[in-house]
Amino acid sequence: MKRLRVYLLLMRPANIVTSVADVLAGIAISGIFLQESLTSATIGNIVLLCLATIGLYGGGIVFNDVFDYELDRVERPERVIPSGQLSLKGASTLGSSLLAFGIIMALLVNITAAWFAIFISISALVYNKWGKHHSLLGPPNMGLCRGLNLLLGVSILPAALNGIWYVAVVPILYISAITMISRGEVHGSSKKPLYGAVALYSLVILMILAFAWNRDMILFVIPFLVTFAFMIFKPLIKAIKTPTGPAIGRSVKAGVMALILMNSAWAASTGAWSLAILIVFLLPLSLWLSRRFAVT
């Protein structure tokens, strides 16, 4: 049990719940829930894609700490690897196993899903090794991981990708904003990136509204977007007033958790009401896990 807790500390399970929400939103966007009935094979593929993103996100976040080992020895010595709870080799093995598991689960769905899983793995490793250290390319690199994760869900119906691949732009912008401000978590930040996050958050909301408008679902999506906006803007405004490390950290945490609400809005915009509500119920689970395991 002690070893399992160490693994969970490294994998950040609260964040993994948000990645499952990404995939469920992508599945809704594919239009599969608009079919008259779901077969057992389809339900099986939904489960496999959820397992795939658990492996991919978990593996990616493990390698985040693997590549940050030297820095964490100085800034965050309490983390799993620098504190000696798990060796660098053990963490690398865990991360590799999780990524491989994610790719295999996706391959069991279809070859398109497998390619997305591979691209997600590559994008995550590139970010962890190089992207996070680049002020300009780092945020969109991290955003690309989430954009591809959304499309991983859409890939349950590969043909659907031709008409709606562009939805990946929304999580790319959103995660770029979170990544941009997260660099002030330790030492604080100027207000400039925080105002940039306000602009990107607003653009994301407008893009989801436009998507819902084109599908005559605007009234259905508004309650989800209002809740989403409240969750992300309240701590961000506080951080703008006092741009200290702890205030920015709370804003980043809220932004990550709010991904679940954004994904519920995606589902509502497609008319998949039951799924939208199901995704909302992932939020209490993620918040509960965030009180027991680190989010950032």
TrEMBL record:
Calcium keyword on record: no
Main location group: membrane
One cellular component term from this protein's GO annotations in UniProt: membrane
GO molecular function: transferase activity, transferring alkyl or aryl (other than methyl) groups
Keywords, in A-Z order: Cell membrane, Membrane, Transferase, Transmembrane, Transmembrane helix
Signal peptide residue numbers: none
Residues annotated as transmembrane: 12-34, 46-67, 98-127, 147-174, 194-212, 218-236, 272-290
Compartments, record wording: Membrane
InterPro entries the UniProt entry points to: Prenyltransferase_related (IPR050475), UbiA_prenyltransferase (IPR000537), UbiA_sf (IPR044878)
PANTHER family: CHLOROPHYLL SYNTHASE, CHLOROPHYLL SYNTHASE, CHLOROPLASTIC
Name assigned to this protein: 4-hydroxybenzoate polyprenyltransferase
